[in-house]
Amino acid sequence: MKLQQFLSSFLLIAFLAAFFPSQSVRADDSVPPDFRPQFLKLCDLAAAKVSDDNSKGPFFIDSYGVRALCVAYDMTGNTNYLDACRHWSLRMVRYQDQMTPHGAYYMHYNRKPGETTNDWYAADSSSIGMAVLATAVRCHGSEQKRFLISAKKFARLVMKNYVKPSGGVSDGLWHQSSDAWWCSSGLFGSFLFNLYANTGDKHYLKTALGVTDWLNHWDLTKDQPFPLSQQGPAMIMYVMENYSAGWPYITKDDDRNEAAQAKVSWCFDWINEQQKKAPADRQWPPTVGWGMKFGGLPFHQYVFSRYFSNDQYSTAGDAEMERLAPIAATDDPSRLTQLPFFMLMSYAERLDPGDIYRSLK
């Protein structure tokens, strides 16, 4: 009789886990209770914005909302979230088919579909590619295949033309520099780790690890285009994307792991110093420009709280999110700034750990 009761309970739990994703088996009682409603409210606004073909603003900003909406769909089963991601990603693919060079994503500024002049950036396009990939994971059949082909086209373009012998990545057709750059390296490395997770193609992994080696030995404080002294949280957020996405692969090599540990620790020390200050007292206020990237830094704190088994990272991330939530609050999709879009990624990782990097493999 006890065995039958056990089996019945086990089957009930399995059923609930399979058909009611909002009852996440990874739920964390330490998550502040306001986070879920704040996240879902922002998701509703973001879904409306990315579904609007007349919406303004760069697509790389939308891409962070799309990735978070994919997680919201996993959590709730709300098809409005997935439909918004599909609509946006199909739009990216249609634009991509018209772009020169072949495989480039249209960024919603600078080089347009059909043009052969003006700048085009591998960094912003890597963010777009990660959102297309995240959408592919939640789709099926020919639609999923179309999104994966799109991501592979973009990867082929950058790997063939913009990955340097050093392992770093230049920022595509950027009039200011053709050298390897921290932003395009961090974001394309992250994109490739995601693409490898979804395809198993080791060429992507090899290139991503080469990017990591370059970042491991790059001095973030040196004089360079858009230096740390100017970019602040933007530089840290983008560089850390490579490590957050690639950590399970990076740590397999002792030397690479040691160098990466040092780089990540340095970045978290920088984040910690910034978060000690009230938002209004920071060199980069989170209401404007580069300071809006402060919304994405808790994402990395949450990711590495798992990798390092360090609750202090998640505690610090929670405190920062609570400071930023009143600043990001709005009821109007047209008034969504970069800050809430980056915060969506942080909320997603806190509420459903690891799901941002869900893959087909």
Describe the 3D structure.
The protein has one domain (30-355): Alpha/alpha barrel (Glycosyltransferase). With 361 residues, the chain is mainly alpha-helical. Mean pLDDT is 93; it is low at 1-26. Helix 8 packs across helix 11. It is 63% helix and 0% strand. The chain has helices spanning 2-19, 35-50, 59-76, 79-96, 122-137, 141-161, 182-199, 202-216, 228-231, 233-250, 254-275, 297-307, 311-328, 338-351. It is globular, with a radius of gyration of 20 Å. It is built from 14 helices and no strands.
Helix content: 55-70%
**In the CATH classification, which architecture applies?**
Alpha/alpha barrel
Main sheet characteristics: none
Low-confidence stretches: 1-26
- C-alpha end-to-end distance: 39 Å
- Provide the CATH top-level class: Mainly Alpha
- Secondary structural class: mainly alpha
Taken together, the total number of domains comes to 1
What is the tally of beta strands? 0
Content of β-strand: under 5%
Overall pLDDT metric: 93
Using the CA coordinates, give the radius of gyration.
20 Å
- Described by the principal axes of the CA atoms, the overall outline is globular
CATH topology, what is it called? Answer: Glycosyltransferase
Topology:
Elements: H1 2-19, H2 35-50, H3 59-76, H4 79-96, H5 122-137, H6 141-161, H7 182-199, H8 202-216, H9 228-231, H10 233-250, H11 254-275, H12 297-307, H13 311-328, H14 338-351
Helix pairs in contact: 2-3, 2-4, 2-14, 3-4, 3-5, 3-14, 4-5, 5-6, 5-7, 6-7, 7-8, 7-10, 8-10, 8-11, 10-11, 10-12, 12-13, 12-14, 13-14
